[in-house]
From TrEMBL:
Keywords: Transferase. SUPFAM superfamilies: P-loop containing nucleoside triphosphate hydrolases. One of its GO terms (molecular function) is corrinoid adenosyltransferase activity. This is Cob(I)yrinic acid a,c-diamide adenosyltransferase. Its EC number is 2.5.1.17. The gene is cobO. CDD domains: CobA_ACA. Signal peptide: none annotated. InterPro entries: CblAdoTrfase_CobA, P-loop_NTPase. It comes from the Bacteria. It comes from Cutibacterium modestum HL044PA1.
């Protein structure tokens, strides 16, 4: 879409500036590869704008250390040292969340996911970040660990201009319905189908 233009004629009574300041809810779902990678790319744009970036990984173990984490945290350090970009917070459920280190996420991942969502909900209520990446957040909803209707209500009614990107397979219909941008990653081919293991620089 050249120059981010659209041929649609909005009928919402808002100015172009007002529309550009609206909070956006993005869902990257589907069976294909690239959901988190695309979301982190958007987080880079958010950092460049000087936004406060918060990344919350709801399923990945703390032992699964990905390159994107190092990259974004390095940019957060750059912000602290020079003021360039914005601050970055990165939390992983598998570590028990940084604000509740005594919590054993490995023994009770459902409780850990609930704790994580309670914390993110509180952050949304206090407008703590400008950009949230809720990585693999669809799974706690799909598994019945979180109430989908409650999640949707909190996201729809969040205050200010807080942008939220959610990743994961099997995004619930209620979430897709209220999202502003929904992208489904469709797998055509993947080396995993031939028994190949993940590759450094490609999968992590």
């Amino acid at each position: 879409m050249p120059h981010a233009c659209t041929n649609a004629e909005p009928n919402d009574g808002l100015s172009t500036k007002q529309r550009r300041l609206r909070p956006v809810l993005v869902v990257n779902t589907g069976e294909g590869k690239g959901k988190t990678t695309a979301a982190v790319g958007t987080a880079l744009r958010a950092w460049h704008q000087g936004w406060r970036v918060g990344v919350f990984q709801f399923v990945k173990s703390g032992r699964w250390h990905v390159g994107e984490q190092d990259a974004l945290q390095a940019l957060g350090q750059l912000h602290e040292e020079t003021g360039v970009g914005g601050p970055v917070t990165w939390e992983v459920m598998g570590t028990g969340w940084s604000w509740a280190r005594s919590f054993d996420a490995a023994e009770n991942p459902e409780a850990a996911a609930r704790e994580g969502w309670r914390h993110v909900s509180d952050l949304l209520a206090h407008e703590a970040f400008d950009f949230y990446l809720l990585d693999e957040f669809t799974y706690p909803m799909d598994w019945g660990w979180l109430d989908v209707n409650e999640v949707v209500e909190i996201l729809v009614n969040r205050s200010g201009t807080q942008h939220v990107v959610i990743t994961g397979r099997r995004a619930p219909d209620a979430l897709i319905k209220v999202a502003d941008i929904v992208t489904e990653m469709t797998k055509i081919k993947h080396p995993f189908d031939l028994g190949q293991r993940g590759q450094a620089g490609i999968e992590w």
